[in-house]
Amino acid sequence: MRRDLTTALKARDRVAVSALRSALAAIDNAEAVPAPDARMSSSEHVAGAAVGVGSAEAARRELTPDDLHAIVAAEVAERVDAATGYARSGRQDAADRLRAEADVLRRYLRPE
After folding, report:
1. Within a domain: residue 100?
2. Which residue range(s) make up the domain with 27?
3. Element (DSSP H or E) covering residue 50
4. Is the pTM of this model over 0.70?
5. What is the CATH number of the domain that holds 75?
């Protein structure tokens, strides 16, 4: 996906760039460690601040292929639902854009 984002940026494909950036952000968010797991210690300057070399670093979660599929599928479903709402309210241009973004992301879903 990241390679395809670079290609879409070079091609100035706004629909693909938007869809891929959003999906990659969702994946990055899913990899993030929940806040309570971060190592925190007291600092004389800022309460609850991380102190020391590497203290602000936290391991990322490893996502399985099923996790990645679920995230991308959710991104597709979100766009399809939003497109339906836009179409109902007469915003066909926005609905078409969201459907095009969903089509871009469907390429990353494995066949069911």
Report:
1. yes
2. 2-32+61-106
3. none
4. yes
5. 1.10.1510.10
Task: Give yes or no for a contact between 26 and 17, defined as CB atoms under 8 angstroms apart.
Answer: no
**What's the average pLDDT block by block, 10 residues per block, for the chain (112 residues)?**
95 96 94 63 57 65 92 97 96 97 94 68
Q: Which of 58, 40, 59 is nearest to 50 (CA)?
A: 40
Residue 89 lies in a domain: yes
Cβ neighbour number for residue 29 with a 10 Å cutoff:
9
Q: Is residue 8 part of a domain?
A: yes
3-state secondary structure of 83: helix
DSSP conformational letter for 39: -
The two structure tokens encoding residue 102: 């969903």
